[in-house]
Specification:
With 426 residues, the chain is an alpha+beta fold. It contains eleven helices and 20 strands. α10 packs across α11.
Length: 426
């Protein structure tokens, strides 16, 4: 009951201040009662342009137009349709790509089996691709310059199918990390030239193996082994582990030789490989060693119940290139023996970013293993690239060869999924 008199006294006080201000500044009209000088100053500053949008960034939430749900500090769920607003990056006459960094979750793919994702810029289709398995993906579409005359541009994505969340009935679409419009980096994102260089590089790798099998036979074996579904139906301690078993064998040899105090893995998936590393370390008596593994979603429910997971494994639910994750891991492994294996998003751009972030942590005599370089090397997927091998070639070209050498002795089984990707620190 005391509020009304207080408001009355406050009103008289404010009126007195306005009159006093008017007496002291007769040359200008008194401001309106609702105006504040700081608002005028802010309006005079042009708003920042946004070419790249991390969808979980709260500072950019006004750029999310529709179709996004809650997520974490690194990503958000979407519905079947979702859209953002992005500015066209200068110069406006340069080739421009639309890039979507996302994950096709199990919750969707286990229900619909396959899904087609279509991208539009200002209402016009710029690309479409079908996906048949869950996992981390990178959709890249060339955007005609005429579509960017209207800026900010409305960038929309649409799935032809969605699942239903049993808890609330809403549509389940993708897990999105980042959307951006950018100009191609000729060393990595020039799709045709980078992919061609990777395939040429793979042929050179076959020669350098000095195997007794002819190159054509090696290539045929690689393709055949990749197409046989054995590797994609492997389990370790009742946890899926999508690895080449011959590469797993080679990794345990490397672990035995290097005795790492820390093994860093990117791309956890369901935790099968991280659990395998834990068992390997434990079996070798390396009880003080630890495994750091990261992914943008947590599918480790079964693996995390294993006692050796609890003892050895630290899981980061975030992008492998997140500055917070990289900085925390770098701090924790400093001064220790470190082995790194990269197996998350397989685009050249992302793998190169991972290599630049984690290579400095690898200790002399240990390894930086870049997995699935066969994808844009053989290629086992004719429509894929540039990918991990393109990233390796660029990394070595830009200075990585000063610290690392491609160790072809690790390709002794021939049917490796990592040709040219076994990098040993000098």
């Amino acid at each position: 009951m005391t509020y009304a008199p207080f408001r009355s006294r406050l009103g008289y006080f404010c009126l007195a201040l306005l009159l006093l201000a008017g007496c002291r500044r007769k040359e200008t009209a008194p401001p309106a009662a609702t105006a504040e000088p700081k608002h005028e100053t802010a309006a005079a500053t042009p708003p920042a342009m946004v070419f790249e949008l991390t969808v979980a960034d709260p500072a950019l939430k006004d750029r999310l137009l529709r179709g996004f749900y809650d997520g974490t500090n690194a990503w958000k769920w979407t519905g079947r349709q979702f859209a953002v607003s992005l500015d066209a990056p200068p110069p406006l006459d340069a080739p421009t790509y639309l890039v979507l960094d996302f994950n096709a979750p199990d919750e969707l793919m286990n229900v619909v089996k396959e899904v087609t994702l279509t991208a539009r810029v200002n209402g016009q289709v710029v690309g479409s691709k079908k996906y048949t398995a869950s996992g981390r993906y990178f959709l890249q579409c060339s955007v005609p310059l005429a579509l960017l005359k209207k800026s900010p541009a409305e960038v929309e994505f649409e799935l032809d199918h969605a699942a239903k969340d049993p808890a609330n009935g809403r549509e389940i679409g993708l897990i999105v990390v980042n959307v951006r419009l950018n100009h191609p980096d000729n060393t990595v994102l020039n799709r045709d030239s980078a992919t061609q260089l990777a395939r040429q590089g793979y042929l050179q790798l076959l020669k350098e193996r000095q195997a007794k099998l002819p190159i054509e036979k090696q290539n045929d074996l690689m393709k055949l082994f990749h197409e046989v579904p054995v590797w994609s139906q492997m389990w370790f301690e009742n946890v899926p582990i999508e690895k080449n078993p011959l590469d797993l064998w080679m990794m345990q040899q490397i672990i035995y030789e290097t005795r790492p105090e820390f093994l860093i893995e990117t791309g956890t998936f369901k935790g099968g490989s991280a659990l395998y590393w834990a068992y390997t370390l434990n079996g070798m008596g390396l009880e003080n060693s630890r495994v750091f593994t990261s992914d943008i979603q947590d599918l480790t429910g079964t693996a995390a119940t294993n006692p050796l997971w609890k003892k050895y494994v630290t899981f980061y639910k975030a992008s492998s290139t997140s500055p917070e994750v990289v900085n925390d891991i770098a701090r924790r492994v400093k001064g220790h023996t470190v082995l790194v294996t990269l197996d998350s998003l397989h685009t050249a751009e992302h793998v190169l970013a991972e290599m630049r972030a984690y290579a400095p942590m690898v200790t002399p005599g240990s390894y930086l293993v870049v997995e699935d370089t066969h994808m844009d090397g053989v290629p086992t997927d004719p429509n894929f690239g540039p990918g991990p091998l393109s990233a390796v070639l660029q990394f070595m070209k830009e200075g990585g060869s000063k610290d690392f050498v491609q160790d072809f002795s690790r390709e002794a089984f021939i049917m490796t999924f990592n040709p040219g990707g076994w990098l040993k620190r000098k």
